[in-house]
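hey
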């Protein structure tokens, strides 16, 4: 079995775990940046699953851009939160 056959499913699993942690941050810890973290990593997992399923490059590119924008929002909210607490 090729290495990507092991690492890609492992990566998807880790992305789902990180998404769950993002949901925990948002729902339980009441951190606004948790939700965009969850969205980002779910989209990244969707990208990986989509690439395994042979989805079109255009759709994969759209998923990737949406995930990056969501990650940018999460970082912006995190920085805004940290600056606001000083």
């Amino acid at each position: 079995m090729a290495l990507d056959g092991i690492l890609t499913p492992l990566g998807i699993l880790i992305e789902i775990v990180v998404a769950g942690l993002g949901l925990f941050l948002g729902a339980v810890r009441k951190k606004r940046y948790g939700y965009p973290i969850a969205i980002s990593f779910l989209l990244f997992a969707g990208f990986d699953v989509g690439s395994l399923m042979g989805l079109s490059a255009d759709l994969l590119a759209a998923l990737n851009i949406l995930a990056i924008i969501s990650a940018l929002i999460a970082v912006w909210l995190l920085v805004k939160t940290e600056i606001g607490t000083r």
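Residues 3-84 form one domain. The chain has one domain: 3-84.
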